[in-house]
Amino acid sequence: MLKDSQLASRVELSAFLEGVEKRAFKQAVYALRTDEAALDAVQDAMLKLSASYGDRPAGEFPMLFQRILQNVIYDALRRQKVRNTWTARLSSFVSEDEDEADALDILTADSDAATADAPHRQFERARTLAAIEREIARLPNRQREAFLMRYWEEMDISETAAAMGCSEGSVKTHCSRATQTLAAALKAKGIVP
Q1: What is the CATH number of the domain that holds 140?
Q2: How confident is the model over 132-176, as pLDDT tens digits?
Q3: Residues 77 and 118 both lie in one domain
Q4: Taking a C-beta distance cutoff of 8 angstroms, is the pair 149, 155 a contact?
Q5: Are 138 and 83 found together in one domain?
Q6: For the whole model, what pTM was predicted?
Q7: Which residue among 5, 13, 97, 102 sits deepest, i.e. has the most Cβ atoms within 10 Å of its Cβ?
Q8: CB 58 within 8 A of CB 103
Q9: Are 73 and 41 in contact, with CB atoms under 8 Å apart?
Q10: What CA–CA distance (Å, rounded) separates 149 from 175?
Q11: 54-57: which pairs have CB atoms within 8 A and are 24 or more residues apart?
Q12: How many domains are contained in the chain?
């Protein structure tokens, strides 16, 4: 039997979930705009993968997880839209003084690399990464989804198309538009490769 066709063990599932956790959180934050909603979405996606697909071959986990995560994010966005519609309509009757907390971008860097760099280089890198993340967050949902799956998750075009539920041509179009938009936005900020 081929290794890819063997069923995954609990250790393999745990290792996969541990490895994808931070990237999945960032994807969810980009789409949902709050840490709390993003954490809920990632946890829900992980539970669904474990409960429904945990016995599948480990090679199938990346594509399955991305599809589940995107579905959970879309469900959360639909719930937010409905909730925001009713909240806006009812807000004239309620006077609340709640401060809206902004989601914090936490940049994690390799500790060895961070100590080897001079402080000004660390600052410049953090500033550049923050600018890139802000621009990724501004992309339309489908472009951001395709871009992150292709270039961050390193999924190939067919895997990305299957995970997004669209054609390979659509993935190519979304990725092309995303890279053009990001390049133009970053160039305008003085960030060039």
Answers
A1: 1.10.10.10
A2: 889 999 999 999 999 999 888 889 899 999 999 999 999 999 999
A3: no
A4: yes
A5: no
A6: 0.60
A7: 13
A8: no
A9: yes
A10: 10
A11: 54/8, 54/10, 54/13, 55/7, 55/8, 56/7, 56/8, 57/4, 57/5, 57/6, 57/7, 57/8
A12: 2
Pair 63, 146 in one domain: no
- The answer to whether the CB of 72 falls within 8 A of the CB of 44 is yes
Please report, as a single letter, which amino acid is at residue 29: V
For residue 94, what pLDDT band results from cuts at 50, 70 and 90? very low
Phi-psi region of 33 (alpha: psi -120 to 50; beta: other; left: phi over 0): left
Residue 99 included in any domain: no
What amino acid is encoded at 66 in this protein? Q
Angle between helix 35-53 and helix 10-32 axes, rounded to 10 deg = 150
Q: Is 105 part of a structural domain of the chain?
A: no
Sign for the CA dihedral angle at 182, 187, 190, 193 comes to positive
Asked whether residue 83 is assigned to any structural domain, the reply reads: yes
Flag whether 33 is in a domain. Answer: yes
Identity at 22, one-letter amino acid code: K
Domain boundary (89, 124, 146) is at 89
Residue ranges making up the domain that contains 32: 1-89
